[in-house]
Amino acid sequence: MNIGTQPSQGTLMRPENLTEPAPIRWLLIALAILFFGLFLLLPLAAVFVQALEKGWSVYLAALWEPDALAAIRLTLTVAAISVPLNLIFGIAASWAITKFDFPGKNLLITLIDLPFSVSPVISGLIYVLIFGLHGWLGPWLSAHGIKIIFAVPGIIIATVFVTFPFVARELIPLMDVQGRDEEEAAAVLGANGWQTFLRVTLPHIRWGILYGIIICNARAMGEFGAVSVVSGRIRGLTNTIPLYVEILYNEYHYAAAFAVASLLVLLALVTLVVKSLVGWRMKEQLHF
Fold first, then answer.
1. Are residues 63 and 263 in contact, defined by beta-carbon separation less than 8 angstroms?
2. Which of 65, 146, 184, 206 falls between 20 and 30 A from 278, CA-CA?
């Protein structure tokens, strides 16, 4: 082989050699815009159009209904409990996986991804089999006056399960890239575990933590499958916003259903903006 006739690596990686012809570029851009408009912008616009179809008075009245306010309060309460729990687990799991070698490490990594592979409805059924009245722990819980299924504790447990990978999955790659050198240096200088975490590790992962909290909170507020199984859908007591929207829609209260649904759409849009800003800060931090 005549090596001298081969193009250099720099020649192979030039942008002009990687650029598609203009018609192909415009076709791909047009397809992307069409897909974006048809499957994202159009449904989002439809939610607000339907929500405001009967005017602002009907829209605001739907949000001020006692059942709607109860669903909003419950959704915020579940998120306020499940997100901090996932934050604690995510930080602890990420610290253990990236900073230490121990038996069962690969198993822990696999279990973190378990909620991604299990249907939320199946996870809800599992908790019914465990904590339900005829489940494994149901008779004991009933005898002691503890109610988990068809009550707020069951909703919190189900939400924690479906959302606990998010913080850990954001922090593990970030902490893995940073390595262990700085923590080991801090330990050599006499810093204890808390000092090392607060003064060395935390400043490097603070944007990753915020990123994980944002997506975890969005999923917690929008979860439907697992919550629908364990909640019992009791009006004013165990209905979160997604469940309440379905009830309104099934009862043909379309304007009210879309009005309440618009809250989740607004949450999604705000989450998207904040997520993009935090992601940009994370890339900037990794660059430096």
1. yes
2. 184
> What's the DSSP call for residue 180?
S
Instruction: Please answer whether residues 201 and 187 qualify as being in contact, where contact means their C-beta atoms are separated by less than 8 angstroms.
Output: no
* Helices 56-63, 66-99: inter-axial angle, 10-degree rounding: 60
Distances (CA, A) of 160 to 86, 231, 265: 7, 14, 22
Greatest C-alpha distance within the chain: 84
22, containing H or E segment: helix 22-36
| Residue 139: CB atoms within 10 Å | 11
DSSP-derived 3-state class of residue 1: coil
**pTM given for the model:** 0.84
Q: Please list, residue by residue across 53-88, b when 16 or more beta carbons sit within 10 angstroms of its beta carbon and e when fewer do.
A: eeeeeebeebbebebbebbbebbeebbebbbebbbe
pLDDT at 4: 47
Give which of 254, 253, 228, 256 is closest to 242, Cα–Cα. Answer: 228
**Residue with token string 């707020």:** 152
Rounded Cα distance, 181 and 187, in Å = 10
